[in-house]
Structures are given as structure tokens and as C-alpha cells.
Write a structure and sequence with these properties.
By secondary structure, the chain is mainly β. Among the domains are: 57 residues, no CATH class; 145 residues, Jelly Rolls, CATH 2.60.120; 207 residues, Jelly Rolls (Sandwich), CATH 2.60.120; 36 residues, no CATH class; 186 residues, Mannose-6-phosphate receptor binding domain (Cation-dependent Mannose-6-phosphate Receptor, Chain A); 38 residues, no CATH class. The chain is flat. The N and C termini lie far apart (192 Å). It is found in: Cell membrane. InterPro entries: Elapor1-like_3rd, Elapor1/2, Elapor1/2_C, Elapor1/2_GBD, Elapor1/2_MRH, Elapor1/2_TNFR-like, Growth_fac_rcpt_cys_sf, Man6P_isomerase_rcpt-bd_dom_sf.
Length: 983
Amino acid sequence: MQPGSMHLSPLLLWLLYAQASADLPLCKESDYHYEYTECDVFGSRWRVAVPNKADICTGLPDPVHGTQCAFSCSEGEFLDMQSQRCKKCAVGTYSLGTGIAFDEWDSLPSGFSNQGVNPNDEDIFTNCSSSTWTPKGDYISSNTDECTATLFYAVNLKKPGIVSFEYVYPDEGIYFEFFVQNDQCQSTDSASRWMKISETKWSKYLAELKTGNNVLYWRTTGYVVAGSEVKPVLLRNIGISGVSYTSECFQCKPGTYSEKPGSARCTPCPADTYSNKGATVCLHCDPDKYSGRPVLEHANPRPACTVSDYFYTHTPCDSKGKTQLMYKWIQPKICSETVNGAVKLPASGEKQTCPPCNPGFFFSNSSTCEPCDQGSYSNGTACIKCPVGTEPVLAFEYKWWNTMPKNMRSYTLRQWLSHSENTTGWEVAGEYVYTTPGDQDVDNQMLTLKVPGYRLPQSVSKASENSELSRISFVFETTCSANCTFSFLAGYNQWLNDVVEWWRGSQAKQSYSFLIQKNTTHSFTWSFQRTGKNSEGRKHSGDMARIYSINIANVIGGVASQCRRCAVNPAGFSSACVPCPPGHYMVNGTGVCKSCPPNTIIRADQSVGGDACIPCGPNTERNEAYTACRSDCSLDVLTTEGERMHYDFSALSNITSFQSGPRFTNKGLRYFHHFNIGLCGEKGRMATCVDNVTESGNEVKGYVCQSTAVPSGIRSQSLVSTQPVLIGDALIGVTTDTTLSGISSPDWLFPSATGLRDVIFYFGSSESTLACKEGRSATVRLRCNPTVTAKDLITLPSNCSEGTCDGCTFHFLWESQYACPRCTTNNYRAIVSACIQGIQRTTYVWQQPLQCFGGESLPPPAVSACVSLDFWLRFGVSTGTIAAVLLMSISCYFWKKTRKLQYKYSKLVMNSSGKECDLPTADSCAIMEGEDAEDDVMYLSKKPFFSKIRAYSRERTSDGFDSVPLKSSSSHQRRVDEDTDDD
């Protein structure tokens, strides 16, 4: 390449492009369309031309300023992008104006996204990529497995709008939710996002949308615990209002029309008319033709009428008790009576006497059958009161079919999941009810019987192995030329049901019985389909099913054809039996009422010979109606040491909820067992478990109940509860024993390190199942733990993670400080301090380990005066000194006194005669008693005190007498003494 050639390349490319553009023709209006650019911050935008295909023309119009972003068109209008003005839709078309609609689902419409994910991220082996919503022509269908299928659509609204859609949500095995998120991924309120179970009709749903971006979500998650199949969710006719504009109007679908400009919707064509796409009027079918169902763009030739095009029925009884057989064409009538070989509608038959009413009914004055009053029975003619001591055997028994019973309904279920109230599926024919010739052979002709509930007769014991709650029996036959199907279904309603039994082809007259073991079956349905092949027309309209009789026993609100003797009858249990006052029962149906002992309740289901009065369990008392035992949430327990402990559980009496650990289905879907406990059941506080997913709203009430909860990851922030089960509906007793009335709560389930025994509440349930023939039961252990301040610390046994080891008896441990006995003076002790500066303090502390709560409080510290040890020492020394001084003083006193006595005695001796053994004579000069010898001087040498004492002790003679020296004033006396000494 030469130097400088690189500078020529761009120029050559431009020349080539210009040459190529020059070869393209100028764009025509059909070669491009207009679009708006995104709105800027000032709310402005541009209109630009966009070619329909690239490189087909040149010379597109230049961009121009567009309308303001707040601009919009009304219903029946569209925005003409050329003039940027709203114009009315032409006839044969429609427009929502500020809305869009999606009513054709041959494929996923533009703007919709579809996604299938695994709700449980831990399960990496389940592939959910193909579990998405599937278009089905007129509607779109969800998945039916345990994957989460999400259908979403994003739309930007210029003003507040509304989203509407129709749906069929038939099965509680799928959770179906619809919600909207904005730019901040904030969802709508959970209270309005959960779809309710629908029946056979399409249900319509509306939700408000806010200005700005809105992302619409339709999400389903299968929940197949038992592995059974579920029915999908269906959607159709999605409409959204609040968009800025629509640039075109939509043509009316075949079978609809729009005769006025500016129509917001198209009108369906009436029967025997048809229309093409974008029709302005509906065309009438020729006399020899009819329109299909639903009405389409063409008409079909009318066939000749045959015996399969009409059906017969009986008229209701008139005032004279007469009825007649009459014939009716099947509607809509598609056959022709004028074609060669066509049959005519037979004339009505002669009037005949009406058959009797069904058992339990009687003829009223208007010749209609009315049910007998409660406590009466009949054979179909007149009502008779049940005798005293008997009860009516309630049932529904239908064996005469003059009119359709009020609790039964007939309809036709179309192939596209809709039904017509005007189309009769089954018709009465006197001795039986039968399926009329259908419009299409693939239609399902449905007959539904609704039942409010069941209750065993009083004379039947629930505890009996051979007892049954109810049984439904019917006699039927089918006559089929094709592969017809006759099915019997049981469930909550027409959709929430299970196929109990089905028969294929012609069946001879036979009887079938179905045993009812739970009080949960609320409806029964008989379905007949002539063929399952997807073919139009009614080639087998002569095929039919007949039901001759239906009998269902032990129905609440039923009627009676007979009465039976009552068993031991509690007050108010059956109004047919003679009622007794509260606290009394009837003795063997004799009409004699007998009183029950104190603190006993009336048994609800006595058998013959059984005890009518049941004593309440320990620490419980009967209610005012004598129907149940209850607890006041307080308890006194006597320990082995004779100490009385008082418990008060009122703080735990409110309804308390908790969940078990996570559980997983076969495919890894996580769920929980949710429990509700109403410990004492006082003041009507009973635990309630509900089904908040299905429209049936099934709920149970009692002391303890359980339901299945779906984690919040599946249902956003809302707790989704289903399958409620009653565990305990009666309080059996409250005690510290580990066994009560056959229910055991062993200590090894919840080991304890403390010596304080747990208080156990025992509950029982009268509802028996196949696995638990004696019914379910529950024990709630209340364990004292002063460190637990929460009121809902409830745990399950470590070796039984679901709360039960056998599926029948559930065990719970409830730890709380409110489960401790009330504190008393025995639970604390006093600590006395030393006496310091004359003050002594007394402090009170709890005994450890602390096993009480509330009750007596710790007394405040006490202060008292005291005397210390040094004081007593000083006091002792002082007292000893004083005592010593006093003792010495007393000793001196008595010593001095003794000296005086010695002196007196000496004087007496000196004055006495010299004769031995003679007493001295009286001396006039002697000192008399009481005289003082003041003038006598005793010359005694002065000696120390102790020396005097020693001298005194030595002055004793050998004979034991004291020798006392005496003074004498006369010399004669001294001489006498001297003489004596010489001798």
C-alpha cells in the first residue's frame, strides 16, 4: 500500500455509502413508524422515525418535539403519531386509551418474562428451569410441581392506574400470590397479595398501581407433601390502565363486535350469531345453521333433531298434588325440526299424583315438600314427634326426585373451564335423577351435594371399634355407547376435592358406599363425561348416567325417618331427648334426671351402661355448663417436707405460638410445624389454628393445635398456615405426676438438673384418626427457670423433633420465671453483721439456688443498737474493783466488831470468882453491857493490820478458846495474876 492511502480510506468508504444510499428509494409512510424518546428532566421528549426494517429506504423524517410526558389519551382513543393528537378508534376496534390488554395467549406476549426457580436453594438436584407458565390459547397455565414459577411484566405508568385479571385457583396444593414492586423493590401489602381459592367460575382481581415503574408478579409454588397431583392456576384477560397512550386500536376478536367509534371494549355476539375479526356487527345464522360455542367467525349447519336433542322432566307438584311429565329442548337449541327425518318435541304427559316426599319431609299446604321440625320424623307423608327418651336419627335420604333438593346443584363444566347457570347438567325424573343430553360430548355434567357437618348419634359410642362418623351410599347406573366416565368426588367444594371412585363405560344398576371418618368432608360431587376426546359436537348425547337414591347418615341439620332410644343423656346434647337441668343426666333414656356429684362434668358421648358423670382431674374445676373442666392458672403443691408451694401461671395464660425446626418434603421444600397453646383456656382464650390459604378458611380451636407453616422465603413476610390439626381440646388435669389418665410424660424427655419438680398440664382430644384411635393428647411441662424472662421459651424433645414420638402424644417444655412457685419467707435468710460502734446491721438474701419468683419480697436491711466487747470489759473491771473495796470494808467492820466482843468477854472473865467452873460475880465496877469504856485505856502496841490478824489467829488456847488479854486498874489484880503464875 502506498503512503497516504490510509488517508483516502475513510473518504472512499463515505463515497461508497453515499452511492449505496443513492441507490435506495425514499421512505414511504409504510416503511417506518414513530416512537418517542425517553423523557428528560424537564418532562420533554422527541418524536423520531424508526424504520420497520434496516436498509430498505432512505430519507426518514427529521425528529420533532413530541408531546409532554404527562400527555395521555382516554378510553376508546389512540394517539396518532403523525399529528400527535388523540383520535377515536374506528368501528370494529377498541382501545383502553391509557391502558393495555392481553387476552390472547397463543404465545407469551411481548414484555412478559417467565422464570422457574427452586424455592429451596439447598437442593441442587432439582431442576426447575422448565417449570414455568405455559400459554394455552385463551389463557396461561402455571406449573404443578414443587418449583416456583414466576410470570412478571414491567410497565411505566404516567398516572395512577389499575391492573385487572381473571384467574382460576382450584387447588390448595399450590400457593398463588400476586404482588407489585416499584423502583425500590418495595412490594404491595401482604394482606392483599394472596389469592383466594376459586370455584368453577373465573374470579376477577383488581389492584391499584402507582405512578412510575411497576413490575407485576404472578407467582406459584407447588406444595406436594403427600406426592399427589395438583391442579394448575389459570390466568387470562390481563388489563393495565395508567399508561400514557396506545398508538393503535385493537381489532375485535371473532365472536365479538364494536358498532360505535371510540369503543373501549368489544361486545360478545348473542346466540345464533357470529362475527369475524374486527366485526362491526354480528351476523345472524341462516335458519339451517347455528353458531358454535363459544361464538366464532362462522356458522355450522343445523342437524336434524333427534331424541337426543330433548330431555324429559317432571313439573313441581301443584296445589292439588299433581305433576306431569314434560319435554324440553336442550339449550341452546342447535337442531332443526324442519329437516327431513327430524323428530318433533313430544307433548307433555297427563297429570299424575305426586310421589311422596323423601323421608323426613312432609307435604305443606302448597304441596311442596318441607323438612320436619327438629325432634320429629316422617316416612314422607306426615311428621311425628319422637317419644320421650328417644332421639331422631338425622340423615339425608333421597329416593324420590320430583324436584331438585335445595342443598344440591346441577351445572355443566365446559371444556374451557367455565359453566353456565342456565345449562342443566342433571334433571329430575321422578324415580331417579339423570344427565341430560349435553351441548358438547366433552363437557362434564356435575351434580353437587353440600353437607354442613356430621355428628354421631347419642346412642353410638365413639370408642367402639365398629363405629363410624358417617357413610354415604348411592345407587346408580350408566348407559354409554362411547368410552364415558362416571366419577364420584369428595372434598370441600367443587374444586377442592379428590376422586374417590370412577367407572368407565356402561355400568349395571349397583350400589356404592363411602365411609366418612373425619368431620372435614363438606361436599360430594358426581361427574359424568361422555368422552374425553377433544372433538366438537354431540355425537353421544344419548349416553347418560342415572342416580336412583342417595343416603348420607349422621348429618348435622339433616332430617329423620326414625327415632332411637337415647343413651345416658347429658343436658342440652340433643333437643329430641327430654332435657335435664344443668348438672343432671337422663337415666337410660327413661326421662328420669339424676344429679352428678360435685366437680364432675356431663359426658358428651355416653354409651349404654357408661358413666354419665366424669370427675375433673387434679387441680381443675368444672365450668358452669357442666361440660368441661378448667384451670384458674393457679396451683398449690405440698412438698415431701410438708412445705406448701403456690404457683400462679396467669402470666402464661395468653395464646402462645412457636415453631418446630425446619422440615422438608420429598423434593426438598422447607416447611415448619406451627403450634398454638392456650394453657388455661380461661375467659374464652382458646388456641386457634387456621387455613389462611384456601377460601374454605378451615380452622380448629382448643387448648393445643398444630398447623403447617410455609417459610417466609416462599410467601414474603406473611405467615402462611395450612392443614390445621387439633391436638388437645380438653384439660385432663394439672399435677407434678408424670402419668395421668393413661397419658405419660416421662422425665427422660426433658432432663432436669434441679430438684424442683415440673408442673405438667395434661390435654386430650376426642377426635380420633386411623393412627390415633384413642385421639391425640399433649403434655406441657412448666419448668421453673428464674433466668428466663421471656414468656414463650417452649422447646420440643431432642429425640422427637416434631414434638411427638408416636404421632399421637405431643410433649412440650415451657421454661419461664413465671413457672416458679411464689416466694415465701422460707426462700430467704438473714445475715447479721458484727457490732460496730454500737450499731448492728441485718441483711436478707435469697437461698441459692433460687427456685421461686414473685410472692414475698426480700425485707429491707434492718439496723439495731448493740453493746460492744470493750464496753463489757470496762464494765467488768469497774464492777470487780467496786466489789473488792466493798468486801474489804465489810471485813474491817466485822473485825472491829469482833474485837469489841472479845473485850467484853475478857472483862466478864476477870470479874468472875477464882473458883473453877464458877462464873464471875458481878462487879459493880465492871462495864455493863451497853457501856462504853471511855476511861479505860488499852495499851496495845501499834502493829500493821495483817500482823494483827496473825496475832489474833495465834491467841487461841489449846482448848479452842481465845485467850484475850484484859487490863486491870487495881494492883491486887496484878498480884493475883503473879501468884497464879508462880504456882
